Each structure stands twice: as C-alpha cells, then as structure tokens.
Amino acid sequence: MTDDTTPFTFASVGDLHVGEDKSPALRELFTEVSQTAKALVLCGDLTDTGTPQQAESLAEELRACRIPMIGVLGNHDYETGHAEEVKTILKGAGVHLLDGQSCEVDGVAFVGVKGFAGGFGKRMLSSFGEPAIKTFVSEGISEAMRLENAMRTIKNKRAVVVLHYAPVADTVEGEPLEIYPFLGCSRLGETIDRFKVSAVVHGHAHRGKYEGRTPGGAVVYNVAAHIEKPSGKSYALITV
Ligand SMILES: [Fe+2]
Ligand SMILES: [Fe+2]
Fold this sequence. Notes:
Layout: E1 9-13, H1 24-36, E2 40-43, H2 52-62, E3 69-72, H3 83-92, E4 95-97, E5 101-105, E6 108-112, H4 131-152, E7 158-162, H5 186-192, E8 199-202, E9 211-213, E10 219-222, E11 236-239
Parallel strand pairs: 1-2, 2-3, 3-4, 6-7, 7-8, 8-10
Antiparallel strand pairs: 1-11, 5-6, 9-10
C-alpha cells in the first residue's frame, strides 16, 4: 500500500501509430518500462488508422507489459470507423481506456479524455457563424466538459490528466503555426486549471516540445514518441 507522499513514477508515450506487423522494438519498450515505472500511460494514436488488426497487433505486444496500463484514443484510432472494436480489443488486453472516466493506481488518480482541436488563447475558434463551425467548436467544449465531470469525482491528492490533444500552445511549439488550431484547445487547459493537477500528458503534436505549463501553472508534457525527452527514450518517465 502506497501512502499519499510516496513518489510515483509512471512511463508515458503517445502516437505509437502501430501497424499490422509485429514490432519487437515495442515489445522491448513495454518490457523495459515494466521494470522502471509503476504504470504505463498511452496518449492516443495507439494505432495508425484504427483497424481491428492494428489494435490486435498492439494488444499482442502489450502482453510484455507487467504494470497497470492506462490510455486514451487519438484521432488516428477513429480513422477507419472501428473505434469501438479498437476499444474492446485494447480493454481485453488489460488497458484501462479512459473516455471521460478515471482509474487509480497506488493512490494516484488518472483521468482521461481524447480532447479535440480548436486553437489556443485569444485565437481559439469561437462558436460563431455556420452550423459546421458551431459543430466543430461544440465537440471541443464537450470534451472539456467531460474532463471536468470526471475531475469532479476525484478525491485523491494526486491526479494526472491524460489527453491526446494538447491543452496549451507551449507543447506544440515547433509545429507549423498554421496547424496549431488543429493540435489542441485551450478549453482543456482552462478546465485543468479549475482543479489541482499533478501532471498532464498528451500527444498528437509529433514535432512539438516536451514541457510546458497551463496558465494556472499545471505542468504539461507532450509525450508523443517522436519528441525528445529527458529520459533519452521514446517514452517519458514522470514522477508525481
Ligand atoms: Fe499521432
Ligand atoms: Fe493525433
């Protein structure tokens, strides 16, 4: 039993974009993190195009993982219209897939939603004009509200927010400016700042930056596999 002050280290990576072929490197990664971390947190784009075959291929490699697994889906996992099957396969492999829920490991709460696009700060897209724009904006608002509802249920002293899309512009820095609005949304960051959060992890911005903060000071990590991290590995090791 871990008390509330025992440091808790988890491994986190996003954007594995697993295809249908076997991946010994991935199996090695899952074996390695099982020895160094107390949980593995997967930040979406788990598969390349969301086919059941790709999900099965990831599930097979995840058998090497011996620690609790937590994850959210990313936009790529929706691409071919099989997201429900992908969820079922990954849940069957033991992943706590979060979509507006939370789970707990050693007293640390993990709260997850995929999130959505919409842009950042004063330049965030607002709900104005054509119905299509309003639908787009409402998807981002709905994801932020689902995160808020899940956060309200948390009683733990330490909470980690798991996302695919970025909640701040800080960690998408390095991406072309033109695509910032499609990489995340400040509405997620505003929601996070209404709570006490120990860390936020996300992916999606493959060319972004590892570390940033919400306006309220919560630390945010972009753990996309492509991002350079202090661990020197494709995954981050984060202690809360
Ligand atoms: Fe990705
Ligand atoms: Fe993505």
